[in-house]
Amino acid sequence: MMPTDHSLESRARIEKDSRGESCRVICEQDLLELSQILNIPLHQMYLQSMEKGIVPLRYLRNMPSITLKQQITLQTSQVAVVGAGGLGGYVIEGLCRLGIGALHIFDPDAFDETNLNRQVFARQNTLGYPKVQVMQECCRLINPAVQITAHQIAVKGQTQDDLFADVQVIVDALDTPGDRLTLAAIAGKCCLPLVHGAVAGFGGRVMVIHPLDGRMETLYGGQENACSAEHLLGTPVLSPAFIASFQMMAVLNILFGKNQSRDSRMIYVDMEKPSLDFFEF
Amino acid sequence: MKIEIRLFATLASYASHGEMDADACLSFDGPATIRDAVQRLGVPEQEIKLVFLNGVGVSLDSSLKDKDRVGIFPPIGGG
């Protein structure tokens, strides 16, 4: 028999968190049922639960690295990921699992066989299908509390800045220098931070490009159509998986307002050596 | 003076040059710039995109002093 008390509190139960402390939790099935009974969108149900101090079970293992207050911040955030290839696939899946409120994903392409070596959503049964459509469907199964908007387009024109109207941060997961320069110009126009990532071989870099700071031009100016390192070294799965994680960390730091004075450094990781270095310019 | 030279991505192959010691250092008897180091190692300048001296972005004309660390990158755009 269905419970007649349709409050979040009535569905909550006590669990121990990773520190052994008791906390109130709620499972997804209860959140889904309440969402339907009360006619409240699921992402709002998640938010209401967390605001009452009731932790959705799917986020319990994030704590205390991500506090409940920070989890609420994520649930109310909107992030754009431009490029849904090697880096973008990991970033999109990761931000979905992290519980970003809304993800706006952009890519004009469909999966092909050359993507299978590294792109997390490239599978035998997704070849030929639009990347953003596949990701939207997969992410809905991973975390239905995340609102995913799929744009099967290339972000190529500065007139497209309205695409980022409600976004707090843009992730640059592109692979063409010219497109990255265009995206940096759009991000600058929108006064949004841009989390740049690039990979080649077993290495890659991450840095936060601040609005109109001109550093994307330093990275790629004059080489819009140049043959860059990944064409000679390839891109095995290791480097996008690793660099995407650093990009996600940068997104979290921006959304949480942390490390603001230090996040402009370029991090370069060489996994083969292995080494991790910081550079400033 | 001894200069540590880090060559990244596609430029890493130039680090196997015979004049580089086991600690990835290059020795100079007199004054030198980063361009001098690049030329000794045979790195084509057109393959260089970013140059760092002790972790800070500089130009190839920057002068070197003992124990400096130089980092050199080609263009990297992959995603």
Automatic annotation (TrEMBL), chain A:
Q: Which domain of life is it from?
A: Bacteria
Residue ranges of every copy of the THIF-type NAD/FAD binding fold domain listed in the record: 60-270
A Pfam cross-reference name: ThiF
What GO terms in the biological process aspect are recorded for it?
Answer: cyclic threonylcarbamoyladenosine biosynthetic process
Which positions carry the signal peptide feature in this UniProt record?
A: none
One function term, GO molecular function aspect: tRNA threonylcarbamoyladenosine dehydratase
Q: Which PANTHER family match?
A: TRNA THREONYLCARBAMOYLADENOSINE DEHYDRATASE
**Listed name of the protein:** HesA/MoeB/ThiF family protein
Automatic annotation (TrEMBL), chain B:
* Superkingdom classification of source: Bacteria
Identify the Pfam families for this entry: Ub-Mut7C
InterPro entries, A to Z: Beta-grasp_dom_sf, Mopterin_synth/thiamin_S_b, Ub_Mut7C
Under SUPFAM superfamilies, the record lists: MoaD/ThiS
Query: Which Gene3D superfamilies does the entry mention?
Result: 3.10.20.30
- Every Ubiquitin Mut7-C domain range: 2-74
Protein name (Swiss-Prot/TrEMBL): MoaD/ThiS family protein
From which organism does this entry originate? Desulfobacter hydrogenophilus
Q: What is the lineage of its organism?
A: Bacteria, Pseudomonadati, Thermodesulfobacteriota, Desulfobacteria, Desulfobacterales
